[in-house]
Write a structure and sequence with these properties.
alpha/beta, TIM Barrel, eight-stranded parallel β-sheet, 11 helices, globular
């Protein structure tokens, strides 16, 4: 998941280029899809894509595109737009809207009252919509030590976990890198996140393991997935460095990573969250899905 500043910049640049100046974004995107044949996927990975990476395409038309690709849903879509997903028989693979922001999270007790209220309401909404996953964030350290942050997260999250368990909703805290994109973010290592999972002791609390972020902060992606997969409820992709396409221009080999995920028995969702760089943004997404479809 990107910063608000990065998202604003991405929206402006997303589908820029001479090939697109003469036409509208939706028309271009749909035309590109008409010229391509439907994708035949293997069924081992439930593919998704993050909404914010394609914000220049109206959601209704993005749904048409991803449905043709064989994706099961779209990440980071909140309640106000769920009716659009349902119209296209897609799901919100990672719901949002309950969080205060990326830097104000469960590690700071001053936000607990608002967060408990927000998450109590959204757990009900997510369950009623028939969805499963709801994102959350640790927040920044702001001078706080890791142990205090863990205790504060446990104290706050415990107040919503019984409802989440009752409603079948999984609360998922995203792991970010604190070296490049999210300076001072507390949940910046798989070890800290796993410890939080252990202390909460709920099957309805998991980590959103962002492969891009964890490659930057700690590396050792495949071994970490194999060792700690029971605590990971969702995956995000992007190329390192730069958060762009996951092809040969970057350092990760995603087919091997996806095979490791499949071998753990993972049945939830893998969402593409890279920022496309070329003129054919939809073509980049198509290639990424094919690359990850092991």
């Amino acid at each position: 998941m990107g910063t608000d500043q990065n998202r604003r910049k991405t929206i402006k640049q997303l589908l820029a280029g001479s090939a697109l100046l003469a036409t509208s974004v939706p028309s271009f995107a749909l035309e590109a899809e008409k010229k391509s044949s439907p994708m035949a996927l293997k069924g081992n990975i439930n593919h998704s894509v993050c909404r914010w990476c394609y914000n220049d395409i109206p959601l209704d038309q993005l749904c048409v595109i991803v449905k043709e690709m064989g994706l099961v849903g779209i990440d980071l879509v909140g309640p106000k737009e769920w009716d659009i997903l349902k119209k296209h028989n897609l799901i919100s693979t990672m719901c949002n809207g309950a969080e205060i922001g990326l830097v104000k999270g469960w590690n700071d007790t001053q936000y607990h009252d608002v967060l408990i209220k927000n998450y109590t309401e959204h757990i009900e909404l997510v369950a009623k919509a028939g969805y499963t996953n709801l994102i959350c964030f640790s927040g920044n350290r702001n001078g706080m030590d890791d142990e205090t942050g863990l205790k504060n997260c446990v104290d706050g999250l415990k107040k919503i976990m019984s409802l989440a368990e009752k409603k079948g909703v999984i609360i998922q805290m995203e792991l970010f890198n604190s070296k490049v994109d999210h300076k001072d973010y507390m949940c910046d290592s798989s070890a800290w996140g796993v410890e939080l999972c252990k202390r909460l002791g709920s099957p309805n609390f998991k980590l959103l393991y962002d492969i891009y972020h964890m490659q930057i902060n700690e590396g050792d992606i495949i071994r970490t997935i194999k060792r700690d997969h029971q605590y990971f409820g969702h995956y995000h992709t992007a190329g390192v460095p730069g958060r762009h396409e996951i092809d040969e221009t970057q350092e990760l080999y995603y087919p091997a990573i996806m095979k490791a995920i499949v071998e753990t028995g993972f049945k939830q969702y893998v969402a593409q969250e890279f920022i496309p760089t070329g003129n054919d943004k939809i073509g980049s997404l198509r290639k990424a899905v094919q690359l990850c479809d092991v």
